[in-house]
Structures are given as structure tokens and as C-alpha cells.
Design a protein that fits this description.
Rossmann fold; Helicase, Ruva Protein, domain 3; two-stranded antiparallel sheet
Length: 302
């Protein structure tokens, strides 16, 4: 791990205390050129994490509060007729940024949620037959409330699959929560942090992540995982080839953050639950994420 990344992680850990694993996974997701879904109850630091990450990485940041009346054009933009030129001018939406926080994404309608599908996969927006590419890096951090809460619309499988990983911050430990109370507001720490790297560094790191070597043992382990999800009968359907690629991307990114130019089967095992759980639907609906995780981790490492 280079000095800049170490400094970046240390800085974010000062803002979000006691969540080193989740912070590292969030940064790995960015370096893997993916998108992040944070699912948790309100008030545990989801928005603060996205802000700390954007400031530390020197990224342009925009936030969209997803509500039931939010329109797709509010996100991707709209063409407006210009009377002077007698042509349509494209007014860019909130997605034209480096880091987009889609806050409470499952409170918007399915039509609005689907507006992000092309953006997250193709890194472009198509309006009135014209394609508008986005600048890189482009990173979507979406927060999602628990499905039991009122006013939520479950994300369809195709939308969930666009997120490279899903994490949960959870409650802080006793000492961390007391420190939060005494400082009154964890977001106050945001005023004291600064950019450690820039967008160009992120793009460079993403290229280096792609060059991380995977051995045959890692590929064997990946193949065993994929086949288990498809043949065990535990899940309605198994992991897709795109999910396999997602596992490779996150494995490479984690190895890179550990300062290695090669990945180990242990790296794949570490990221496995965060990549796979939101893509798998168990046959038994009463099966929890913890049970899914335990079953996946029982697959032997070669």
C-alpha cells in the first residue's frame, strides 16, 4: 500500500470511527471501478462516509435525495428547446459528477431507479438519441433503507447487479459511540480533512488494479464458488458471469490495497459475501444474509 492510500484511509477512519473494514471495502470498490450500495438504518454514517471519501479523493460530489416524486430527468438531465438557436440544448443532470450519492435510493419509483442503469454500466447518458459520456472516475454510492421501513420500493435484480458490492456499517462500538456523543457531531470532522489524492490518481490506481495477477488457485476457487451457487439448490439462480467478474475486480482491488501485485484465495474469500449476497436469492425466503455468508465461506479454498 502506497503512502497516499495509507494517509487517505487513516483520514477517513478519523471521521468514521471503528469501521476500518467497511472503509477499506468502499475504497476498494472505487479502485475496482465499481459502484457501492450501503444498506442500513438511518443515522449510522452512510452519507458521512461518502462525503469523507469524496473530499479525501478530491472528487466532485453531488447528492440526490431519492423520493417518490423524483423524475428520471432530475438525475440524468433533459433537453430544452432554445428559441434563439432553434435547437435543443442538453441540461446535464446530477450524474455528471465524480461521486454521486443516491441517498435512500429505494424510496424512488422503479422508473426513476432504472434511470441509473445505463449510467452505471455504460458511463454515459442517452437523451433524445444523443449520448453524453461521463468523466472518469465516476462512482455511485447508493444508500438503502431496510425493506421493512415505510415508503420503500425494492430494487429489481438488474439494478442490484449494477452494484459491485453491498456493505452495512452497523452500530458503532461503545467507545466509538461515546466519542461521537462527546464530539456532538461526527460530520464536524469533515471540515478538518482535505484532499490526499485527485481524480487523476484514482484513474491511475484503477489501471494498476486491473494489472494485479490472479493465480490458477484463485480461478479454481472462483469456479468452485460459482458452481456451488448454481448446483447446490440453495438459491433460485446462481451467480452470473458478470458476478464472477465482479469477484475478480474486488479481489484485485483488495490485494492492491494490501500492497501486493498478486491476489490470494484469501482475498477472494474476504470480498465474497459483499459481492455475492445481494445477487443471490435463496429458495427458502427465511434464510438470512448471515446464513448465506456462512454457506459460501464453507466452500474449501484450494
Amino acid at each position: 500500500m502506497n503512502d497516499s492510500i495509507q494517509k487517505l484511509l487513516a483520514q477517513i477512519n478519523q471521521v468514521i470511527v471503528g469501521k476500518e473494514c467497511q472503509i477499506k471495502l468502499a475504497l476498494a470498490c472505487l479502485l475496482a471501478d465499481g459502484h457501492l450500495l450501503i444498506e442500513d438504518i438511518p443515522g449510522v454514517g452512510k452519507t458521512t462516509l461518502s462525503q469523507a471519501l469524496s473530499i479525501s479523493c478530491g472528487l466532485e460530489y453531488k447528492r440526490v435525495q431519492f423520493t417518490s416524486d423524483l423524475l428520471p430527468s432530475d438525475i440524468i438531465g433533459v433537453s430544452i428547446f432554445n428559441r434563439d438557436t432553434h435547437q435543443f440544448d442538453f441540461k446535464a443532470g446530477a450524474v455528471f459528477t465524480n461521486l454521486l450519492l443516491a441517498d435512500e435510493i429505494n424510496r424512488a419509483s422503479s422508473k426513476t431507479q432504472s434511470a441509473l442503469l445505463e449510467v452505471m454500466e455504460e458511463y454515459q447518458v442517452s437523451v433524445d438519441g444523443q449520448s453524453h459520456p461521463l468523466d472518469k472516475p465516476f462512482f455511485v454510492v447508493a444508500t438503502q433503507n431496510s425493506q421493512e421501513q415505510l415508503g420503500t420500493h425494492p430494487l429489481p435484480e438488474s439494478q442490484m447487479d449494477r452494484f459491485l458490492i453491498r456493505i452495512s456499517l452497523g452500530y458503532p462500538g461503545k467507545e466509538q459511540e461515546r466519542a461521537l456523543w462527546q464530539s456532538k457531531n461526527g460530520r464536524q470532522q469533515l471540515a478538518h480533512i482535505q484532499a490526499v489524492i485527485g481524480p487523476g490518481d484514482i484513474v491511475s490506481y484503477q489501471k494498476e488494479v486491473c494489472a494485479v495477477h490472479l493465480s490458477e488457485a484463485v480461478y479454481d476457487y472462483l469456479e468452485d464458488i460459482i458452481q456451488y451457487t448454481r448446483e447446490s439448490g440453495v438459491f433460485i439462480y446462481g451467480l452470473s458471469p458478470r458476478a464472477g467478474l465482479a469477484l475478480i475486480q474486488m479481489t484485485q482491488a483488495l490485494a492492491y490495497l494490501e500492497g501486493r501485485d498478486f491476489a490470494l484465495p484469501d482475498d477472494l474469500q474476504t470480498v465474497l459475501p459483499y459481492v455475492a449476497n445481494h445477487r443471490l436469492i435463496p429458495v427458502d425466503p427465511s434464510v438470512s444474509d448471515d446464513v448465506i455468508t456462512s454457506r459460501l465461506l464453507e466452500i474449501a479454498i484450494p
